[in-house]
Design goal:
The structure is a single chain. A hairpin with a 7-residue loop joins strand 6 and strand 7. The N and C termini lie close together (about 10 Å). This protein has six helices and eight strands, in the order βαβαβαβαβββαβα. The strands form three sheets. The protein has a four-stranded parallel beta sheet with strand order 2-1-5-8, with helices on both faces. A two-stranded antiparallel ribbon has the order 3-4. The chain is an alpha/beta fold.
Length: about 160
């Protein structure tokens, strides 16, 4: 039975920048937890950031791939470049996924680490833009399929194909 990497906030752990969790209520997630398949990770904590912490966004909404290439930065609301922490956390998430043979991840949509379909545009005004967070981009580049918390059925279907 394959394990699945999941953003720690999605199982209710208070690891988000604002000190809260974002627990999902889902029969699929409940089953995965009961089966012992869930491996929770918060790349931002893994990279050394604290809870709570200032909100962060990728400059110009450039996306995680650009951060991985050194062409964009992750900045927080205090004006600090926190790219190194985001990169370190992404690498730790990938290492964890590889250690456990994980090929599917469910990550928190909108996050500068975990967003898979959209992130925020870097202006801290709540404007969304298409793109991936740093961890999502790194995982996908390594062949791990990333889903958002709104795609649990799709993730479950992919897991059941093996």
């Amino acid at each position: 039975m394959h394990r699945i990497l999941i953003s720690s906030c999605l199982i209710g752990n208070p690891v988000r920048y604002d000190g809260r969790g974002q627990a999902l209520r889902s029969e699929i997630l409940d089953r995965w937890l009961a089966e012992g398949r869930v491996l929770a990770v918060c790349p931002e904590l893994a990279g050394g950031l604290l809870v709570p912490r200032p909100a962060a966004e990728i400059t110009q909404g450039a996306g995680g791939a650009k951060v991985l290439q050194g062409l964009a930065k992750v900045m927080d609301t205090d004006g600090r470049d926190v790219s190194a922490a985001f990169l370190a956390g992404a690498r730790q998430a990938l290492q964890l996924a590889r250690q456990h043979g994980i090929r599917v991840a469910v990550l928190k949509q909108g996050s500068p680490s975990c967003g898979s379909g959209y992130i925020y545009d870097g202006t801290f005004t709540g404007v969304k833009t298409a793109g991936q967070g740093v961890t999502a981009a790194l995982l996908e580049s390594a062949g791990i399929k990333v889903f958002s918390e709104h795609q649990l059925a799709e993730a479950d279907a992919m897991l059941s194909q093996s």
